[in-house]
Amino acid sequence: MVKAIESCVHCGFCLAVCPTYNVLGEEMDSPRGRIYLMKSVLEGKIEQEDAQPYIDRCLGCTACVPACPSGVQYGELLIGYRGQSEAQRNRPLLDRVQRTMIRETLPYPDRFRLAAQAGRIGSLFEQALPEQMRAMIGLLPQQLPPAQPMPEIYPAKGPRRACVAFLSGCVQTVLAPDINHATLRVLAENGVETIIPRGQGCCGSMMMHIGETPLAQQLARKNLDVFPTDVDAIVTNAAGCGSGMHEYGLLFAHDPAEEQARAFAERVQDVTVFLDSLGFRPPQPLPQPMKVIYQDACHLLHAQGIQAPPRRLLGSVPNLTLLELNDGGLCCGSAGTYNLEQPEIAGELGRRKAERIIRLGADAVVSGNIGCLTQIRTHLEAKNQAIPLYHTIQLLDLAYHGAI
Amino acid sequence: MNEQKRLSVIKTPFLDALREIYPADRLLAGSVQALAYESDALTAFNARPQAVVLPETPDEVIETVRLCSREQIPFVARGSGTSLSGGSLPVAEGIVIALNRLNRIKRIDAETRVAVVEPGVINLDISRAAEPYGLYYAPDPSSQSICTIGGNLAFNSGGAHCLKYGMTSNHILGMTVVLADGEVVTLGSASLEGVGVGPDLVGLFVGSEGLFGIALEITVRLLPKPERYCTVMAAYDDLGTAGDAVAQVVASGLLPGAMEIMDRLAIKAAEAAVHAGYPPDAAAIVIVELEGETRQVDEEFKALQAVIQASGARHIHIAKDADERARIWKGRKSAFSAVGRLSPDYIVQDGVVPRGHLGHALTEINRLSREYGLEVANVFHAGDGNLHPLILFDGNQAGALERAEALAGEILRMCVALGGSITGEHGVGMEKKAYMTTMFNETDMDTMKAIRMQMDPGLIANRGKMFPGD
Q: What is the mean pLDDT of residues B24-40?
């Protein structure tokens, strides 16, 4: 943390790309300002609780990291700081209730499914936590899709070119189980055999992101144990999971499992990166021309520097034209649990993103993260726009099967 | 608790009066909020303001300034806080008027090539808005992705391409300002044609570093985008030779859009930050950009190539496409901050020397660097003689800051002795006010002070900047 803070030269270049600074225009809500506040807390100049609202308002999108000329590792700083401060802070009761709910349901598909399906969240807590809970419920679909259990192995179609282990994830399996199955089919189309290790669970990224470090470690440790090491890659289709698993070395720093965690992190690849480097086999032409907006997920673009591979895959589909939002990959406001914890700013960012999409006009919007898709759908629907949304891999899957 | 302490310092009627102008979420008076505003991009100075206000309309700014004038409370206008001279450093007994939400582009007139903007508009956003009309706003400070036009105006900011097109002052046609006493006046004209009658009050206000008041609405000139760019990167084995090469290009009669030098340390830092593709083993590179109509650029390129080849360049590279050009400029524009990768602390200088003396000045800086035992990185607007030596030091070492400041002082005195200036574009601010009397004699200083007293006898507008002893 000290190194990250010391390398900030206070030039302000990060302000240009910070979503909260874009919305609020206040120094405390910029990366430079937050670094200054974190530094002051660590030096004992100000109280942690006084600085906390501004640290909480950070989306953790890490757009500031590639924008920083002096190389401040803001993402690492934020995770470290949040982990340290979470242990010391006294949240108000209602906050704690919500945190507990997030902690106890989101990482566990069975519990999350139960909670969401039964509508228990709404009926129990809507009165108690009106604003935050409304946001939470607002993001749930009217009806959950039926569960679709994953196989243990999904074979390659034709000669096998590679073998990967796949992270099924947590929230996504409940909200959009089709994305995982589409991933298996697209990998198979490209001659990839996929192993879905039994006993795996949530990767812990979301918990790491919000400062729940011990729980993140507990979740991650399980995956370290069950994932095989003799595969070509550990593949994920969720931007946040990919970025978080790349941080496993940091999560397990000074832990006996550190080396194992680093080796695991090195094998992790987003599915688009894996297919792009393997040599992607383009699907058949779409039956009619289609204009598609590709929305960069922060945890692909900013946190992992993944910009070209998904565009190359989509661009290889005959009859598909990619449109660019040209907003510098500004966060849509989803950011893990952010739209639950900071609904106002998340809502403003979501509205802005939706307006930009509507202005540009497209036949579909594509993104590499379930959170972005959920957030954008909510805000497009609020404007009565029925533009279809797909995960990158879903659109490719539909193209292979002539179903679009 | 902090709020309590604050209330005892600031006059309660004043804070109450501010509360009548601003809702709670736009009047920041907490200690953590004030802390975030205590420095701009020059962190050697810091001061916590009593409060920060976030106006959303020009009227709110006017009301605030009138209130400050009535109560004689100092105010500092602030944009994105990217000043390298401490120009937007708060005053401890005063307030900060943060203009970030006054960021509307009110009008773009493609026919007359002007834009009317509010002071909180970001420099690059003007060019983005003008792009559909084939126009752009020319002055391009390295911080153009975030610095505001109000700050550019206050400090008469420069930038790489000001070599050909002139500084901010050449691009501001008119403005409405609120003076320190609350009077609202319009200076200059709303069109290119209206400029030139009567005293140049726009010229007086631009570069006055916030000492006269706050610009509320600014009319800027737009230029047609050049048809073609040709970006040439020449590598040299010696920094002085690179400096001489620039002088030779100028002497040849060519007027490139931009002409920049980066030395070995600056190249190393910028390359680490953006992978621009600079030659890593060069002692210095000269970046020359020709721009204009294709035929003219082709002609100029032939002439430029001859001069560069004769200047002792080891290697010449021409950017092959728009992406490579963008990378070369991104590296150059990130260079100051990128030096943060090489050293925990540094001082950026901004002296100017006549271009014929560039080679000599660079050799002298090199000598001083060795004498003081401090590394100096050089990255600067060579075409207009505007040096930017970055003096690297470790603030944790006892006496290091003092040594670095002494070295900076020697460089500035050298610039003045060579017939140059203590500042090219960053302004005097806090940083260079001690050197004003090196550059200006007593009569000059008295005249400047007299003008300021006329505008702001209570010294409430950006108090403590520019003049030594304030």
A: 94
DSSP, res B116: E
Q: What ipTM was predicted for this assembly?
A: 0.93
Domain assignment of residue A354, yes or no: yes
Residues B305, B247 contacting (CB under 8 angstroms): no
CA pair distance B194, A313, nearest whole angstrom: 55
Q: Which residues of A touch B52 (CB under 8 A)?
A: 27
Report the SS3 class of residue B47: coil
A113 min Cα distance to partner chain B (Å) = 39
- B33 contacts chain A (CB < 8 A): yes
Alpha carbons A76 and A307: distance in angstroms, whole number: 21
A26 Cα to chain B: minimum distance (Å)? 8
A260 and A158 share a domain?
yes
Residues 129 through 168 of chain B touching chain A, CB cutoff 8 Å: 143, 145-147
Please say whether the beta carbons of A14 and A67 come within 8 A.
yes
The CATH class, in words, for B105-224 is: alpha beta
Q: Do residue A13 and residue B28 have CB atoms under 8 angstroms apart?
A: no
- Closest residue by Cα to residue B460 from B177, B181, B59: B181
Cross-chain Cβ contact A10/B338 below 8 Å: no
Helix (H) or strand (E) holding B335: helix B322-338
| Domain locations along chain B | 2-98, 105-224, 228-417
B350 vs A: CB within 8 A: no
- Compute the C-alpha angle A258/A261/A266, nearest 5°: 130
Six token digits for residue B123: 């420099």
Q: How many beta-carbon pairs below 8 A join chains A and B?
A: 100
Q: Range of A98's domain?
A: 93-138
Torsions phi, psi of B139, nearest 5?
-60, 130
Q: Hey, are the CB atoms on B82 and A25 less than 8 Å from each other? A: no
* Alpha helices per DSSP H over A89-138: 93-105, 109-118, 120-125, 130-138
CATH of the domain at A28: 1.10.1060.10
> Is residue A148 in some structural domain?
no
Give the one of A16, A25, A69 whose C-beta lies nearest to B337's C-beta. Answer: A69
Q: Is there a single domain that holds both residue A130 and residue A241?
A: no
Q: What pLDDT shows up at residue B5?
A: 42
Residue A253 lies in a domain: yes
- CB contact A16 to B (< 8 Å): yes
Question: A151-156 contacts: CB < 8 A, separation 24 or more?
Answer: A151/A184, A151/A196, A152/A195, A152/A196, A152/A198, A153/A193, A153/A194, A153/A195, A153/A196, A154/A184, A154/A187, A154/A188, A154/A193, A154/A194, A154/A196, A155/A188, A155/A193, A156/A187, A156/A188, A156/A191, A156/A192, A156/A193
Question: Do residue A83 and residue A103 come from a single domain?
Answer: no
Instruction: Note whether residue A29 is domain-resident.
Output: yes
3-state DSSP call for residue B229? strand
Is pLDDT at A289 greater than 60 in this prediction?
Answer: yes
Q: For tokens 């010696």, what's the residue?
A: B238
The tokens describing A107, both together, are 């990482």
- Residue range A249-260, pLDDT digits in tens: 999 999 999 999
Question: Are the Cβ atoms of A69 and B31 closer than 8 angstroms?
Answer: no
Contact B246, B259 (CB under 8 A): yes
Which whole number is the average pLDDT over A258-278? 97
From CA B91, how far away is CA B79, in angstroms rounded? 15
Contacts of B54 in chain A (CB under 8 A): 25-26
CATH number for the domain that contains residue A195: 3.40.50
Least confident of A216-225, B10-19, B216-225: B10-19
Residues of B in contact with A31 (CB under 8 A): none
CATH class label, B228-417:
alpha beta
pLDDT at B2: 42
How many domains are contained in chain A? 4
Q: Which fold has domain B2-98?
A: 3.30.43
SS3 of residue A233 by DSSP = strand
